[in-house]
């Protein structure tokens, strides 16, 4: 398993406390994510705590998905 850190355009790393995902952390505070290739140019992003990133209707990312569904798939 390879854990990746994500860095935002503001130079801060993605961090989550189990709720919203924010670009506010330093590298040592960042949440690690596992990329799961799902086929058809889609991936799932899973935290080290086992939660998938979900895209909420208002555009907010949360680390609250328990399984792969439409709102936890991202296209690349």
Protein described:
The strands form three sheets. The protein has a four-stranded antiparallel β-sheet, with no helix packed on it. The protein has a two-stranded antiparallel ribbon with strand order 2-3. It is an all-beta fold. It is globular and about 30 Å long. It contains no helices and eight strands. A hairpin with a 2-residue loop joins β4 and β5. The protein has strands spanning 3-4, 13-16, 21-25, 33-39, 42-47, 52-55, 61-65, 74-75. The chain has a single domain (3-75), classed as Trefoil (Acidic Fibroblast Growth Factor, subunit A) (Trefoil). It starts with a strand and ends with a strand. It is found in: Cytoplasm. It comes from Bugula neritina.
Order of helices and strands: EEEEEEEE
Count of discrete domains: 1
- The chain-level mean pLDDT equals 89
Task: Calculate Rg over CA atoms.
Answer: 12 Å
Output the number of helix runs. Answer: 0
Give the name of the CATH architecture: Trefoil
CATH class: Mainly Beta
Q: What is the SS-derived class? A: mainly beta
Uncertain ranges:
none
Largest sheet: 4 strands, antiparallel
Strand proportion: over 45%
How are strands sequenced across the largest beta sheet? 1-4-5-8
Distance between the termini: 20 Å
Overall form: globular
The CATH topology comes to Trefoil (Acidic Fibroblast Growth Factor, subunit A)
Query: Into which percent range does the helicity of residues fall?
Result: under 10%
Counting DSSP E segments of at least 2 residues, the number of strands comes to 8
């Amino acid at each position: 398993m390879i854990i990746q850190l994500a860095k935002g355009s503001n130079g801060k790393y993605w961090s989550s406390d189990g709720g919203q995902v924010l670009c506010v952390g330093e590298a040592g505070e960042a949440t690690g994510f596992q990329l799961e290739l799902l086929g058809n140019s889609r991936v799932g992003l899973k935290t080290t705590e086992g939660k998938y990133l979900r895209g909420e209707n208002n555009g907010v990312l949360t680390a609250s998905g328990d399984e792969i569904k439409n709102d936890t798939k991202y296209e690349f």
